[in-house]
Amino acid sequence: MKVLVATEKPFAGVAVKGIREIVEAAGHELALLEKYTDSKDLLKAVKDADALIVRSDKVTADVVAAAKNLKIVVRAGAGYDNLDLDALSAAKVVAMNTPGQNSNAVAELAVSFMVYMSRNQYTPATGSELKGKTLGVQAYGNVGRLVANIAKGFGMEIMAFDPFIPAEKIEADGVKVASSLEELYSSSNFISLHIPVTPQTKGSIGYALLSRMPKGGCLVNTARKEVINEAELVKVLTEREDLKYITDIAADNQAELNEKFGVRVFATPKKMGAQTSEANINAGLAAARQICDFFATGNTRFQLNRF
Measured between alpha carbons, how far is 38 from 58 in angstroms, rounded to an integer? Predict the structure, then answer.
């Protein structure tokens, strides 16, 4: 089988070396498409691929149509909104992600964001401490749980809301369970977002929730920009001069946010959550192992689509 690694933003060299070793040890062929600048390059490279590993690269309906031999796509990372699941399902191509491989990197970034904003982006002004503050974790999955654990080390109180995880499992970690999103936002000095983009979550974080936050509240977004209602974010930041917003996914209206709100907002130049050497390696190797296991045993444990 031919396994194509298509990465506009390449894996680290050591990760590529590890991927090659895993793929070739299983008797498959590895092909690389790195730093490509034209989607046509991907369409050409994928034509004879049986498997595809990507990072943030978009696997569109056109890519799926061009890949006549494709049987599996693995997104090396947790988020998968760059995969056209409908097109992949229609073509009976298995889509997977690699949950948990980037989690620690994202969690550390989220907590560092809280420190950065509580200290006014390190400008010469009096800031505040995290100790004694309440952190609200929206979605208590791999990343959310790690964020909670790290924040406990700062002496923070933790509250979480996740309708898909039993309350007793969250409480077993010493975390209070919010009965609703409204309670989470009303009770938390910091909110850390870890929700995926779905029809239900897209644009769901807006005025109604953010206006509930206590004085000096800060929203931390290491999830996806699409979950934010950007127009309503402007509205609430305008009305509430005490609120703050920090993200590693710049908003479409980031220039407006920066101009209007100064040090109350911050966005990294590019998405930084998984930008550690450890996460880079872990996700790439996990993707290779999942593909080889799929070909060897049919294992579809992390399948995202159904057909």
Answer: 12
